Automatic annotation (TrEMBL):
Native source species: Streptomyces prasinus
Domain FAD-binding residue range list: 9-348
SUPFAM superfamilies in alphabetical order: FAD-linked reductases, C-terminal domain (SSF54373), FAD/NAD(P)-binding domain (SSF51905)
Key word Flavoprotein present: yes
InterPro entries: FAD-bd, FAD-dep_Monooxygenase_BioMet, FAD/NAD-bd_sf
Protein name per the record: FAD-dependent oxidoreductase
Protein keywords: FAD, Flavoprotein, Monooxygenase, Oxidoreductase
Chain segments annotated as coiled-coil in the UniProt record: none
Cofactors (names): FAD
Length: 406
């Protein structure tokens, strides 16, 4: 590793999974990194997180996979069930077979455990400093560097500024002239709780007409993470009438016993809205660039938002290390590598969500197609988890999943 004096100094805005993976990846390449986080402490909200082998490989490269595996669960399979009958529609073998095929396991974990590992890994390099209570409100740049201003009036300068500040990124507003994030009509209720007897080490998806329930064990298998989602047309997303707990129980009334039982473990006091954005290039702007949800927020259906942020972080660190004296070019190269990939994941995530929520004849045809796949046929996942550059599926152009109200 070259000394920090010959590497760009990096200022990362946002201390989430994307921000600290960036800090770790840059520090491991000898760069000094300063992280500014708005919140009073470095903390993840929500509960469970799935990481595909594409992210697992990167955690290995960054030297923190073993630490993650101390509390993560390695599910044996991914299974899709009919939400109404409980009938199994499809299973993919995860476990050892998937890990061997793609060079890293599929893991599920508590978000807080992952963030803590990334934070500790970053600090252990001796090249990362992190400050909380620093809300960035402005970014400026010139030929020599970039400077951010925080709400408390402090300013911080570096060779490059990376906006890893999430969905409503303040840095994005300085870089891209675009609209508000798109809100979904699908609401989310989450609920990690004690794992009932007999629940297998699996990622389980119950698919229904305009709804789903996803569950998987976390924290060494002691807790079960549950996520229920359904489409509500009662009022505007976020309003008092939209997606109330009463509607949740109504929508799931015909589902099978295990699904209805799971609803009682959800935190009904917190309803989550779901946002994303249509893929939009222009993340790199001189010495400032976007990363993670700030660049490409996506729906959760392929469980890839954090994984894509990690892919960004590693690609960004490599680009900066390759062109230490020309960060502007490095940031352009980073976007050139990452934009097509992240955009494909965003589009396919929307497509997969539509497929999961089919009803009627569409659902019958979907189930027929899925039931003809074998459990160890990973060809459909090659583009997402593999290293061979398999082309991403192209959802039909005439289906614009970014129209209002989906
Ligand atoms: C229900 C649900 C389930 C999901 N499941 C998965 C999954 O299984 N697998 C997966 O890979 N992804 C999943 N995702 C997506 C994943 O959570 C996100 O893509 C990921 O957390 C994005 O990380 P980030 O660091 O880019 O942004 P964030 O996690 O949003 O972090 C941004 C950070 O920036 C800080 N910040 C914001 N503004 C400022 C400012 N002005 N100044 C300073 N700091 C600021 C914030 O406080 C925050 O700490 C899921 C998402 C949802 C909603």
């Amino acid at each position: 590793m070259a000394g920090p004096e010959s590497r760009p100094h990096v200022l990362v805005i946002g201390g989430g999974i994307g921000g600290f993976t960036t800090a770790l990846a840059c520090a491991r390449r000898g760069m000094s990194v300063h992280v500014l986080e708005r919140a009073p402490e470095i903390k993840e909200i929500g509960a469970g997180l799935q990481l595909g082998p594409n992210a697992g490989r990167l955690l290995g490269e960054l030297g923190v996979l073993d630490s993650v595996l101390r509390t993560a669960v390695l599910p044996e399979r991914f299974v899709i069930l009919d939400a109404y009958t409980g009938r199994e529609i499809y299973q993919a073998r995860f476990g050892q077979a998937l890990a061997e095929r793609f060079g890293a396991p599929y893991t599920v974990m508590h978000r807080a455990d992952l963030l803590d590992t990334l934070l500790q890994g970053s600090l252990a390099t001796g090249l990362v400093t992190a400050f909380t209570g620093k809300e960035v409100v402005g970014v400026e740049q010139d030929a020599r560097g970039a400077t951010v201003t925080c709400a408390d009036g402090s300013t911080h300068s570096a060779d490059v500024v990376i906006g890893a500040d999430g969905l409503r990124s303040a840095v994005r507003r300085e870089v891209l002239d675009d609209s508000e994030p798109a809100v979904s009509r699908y609401a989310i209720y989450r609920g990690p709780g004690p794992r009932p007897e007999g629940v297998e080490d699996a990622v389980t998806l119950y698919a229904g007409d305009g709804l789903h329930l996803m569950q998987y064990p976390i924290q060494g298998g002691e807790l079960l993470n549950r996520v229920a989602s359904f489409r509500s047309d009662r009022g505007a997303p976020g309003s008092d009438t939209w997606a109330t707990p009463e509607e949740l129980f109504e929508k799931f009334a015909d589902t099978c016993d295990p699904v209805r039982e799971a609803l009682h473990h959800l935190d009904l006091g917190k309803r989550w809205e779901q946002f994303d954005r249509k893929p939009m290039p222009g993340w790199a702007h001189g010495r400032v660039a976007l990363l993670g949800d700030a660049a490409h927020p996506m729906r959760q259906y392929l469980a890839q938002g954090a994984g894509q942020a990690m892919e960004d972080a590693v690609a960004l660190a490599a680009a900066l290390a390759d062109s230490p004296d020309d960060p502007v070019t490095a940031l352009k190269e980073y976007e050139g590598i990452r934009f097509p990939r992240a955009a494909a994941v965003q589009r396919n995530t929307r497509f997969f969500g539509e497929m999961v929520h089919l009803g009627g004849v569409g659902a019958v045809l979907r189930d027929f197609a899925f039931s003809s796949l074998t459990a160890d046929d990973y060809s459909l996942a090659e583009w997402l988890y593999g290293t061979g550059g398999a082309p991403a599926p192209q959802p039909p152009a005439r289906l614009d999943f970014y129209t209002e109200g989906r």
